[in-house]
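USER: Please consider what follows.
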Amino acid sequence: MRFISAWLAAAPYRAVVLNIAMLVLLLALVDSTELFVLVGASCLAVAGLVGLRGALRASFGRRGGVRAAFDRVLVWLPGAAALTLGAVGLHLAVTTPPGSILHQAGIALFGFELVMLALPADAKSAPAKAA
């Protein structure tokens, strides 16, 4: 047990990734389309609202004033792409027959994009440290 807790404590985002993976696995195992839609859409909505808040703060916040249009695109595009791909994954997971390749791909895509939406921007791209 000490090994697992040390591994989780080494990087703060690991617990978030593990919780999302367990949620998506549980939703896939329950095999209830209605529950998957309800929980999945709620997760995407909450993650989208949090991302919207962060993007608005980064675009129009007090830090450095109003950004240039290209800088705003760089702030908004990753979250919008992750939200769109998460919705596509959710759609595939609930509309295709269980056990099919598209169903499994939808579950994996939904889970991966939910992780991308849940992680803060600074945890996604940590700069390489010089030796």
About this structure: The chain has one domain: 13-121.
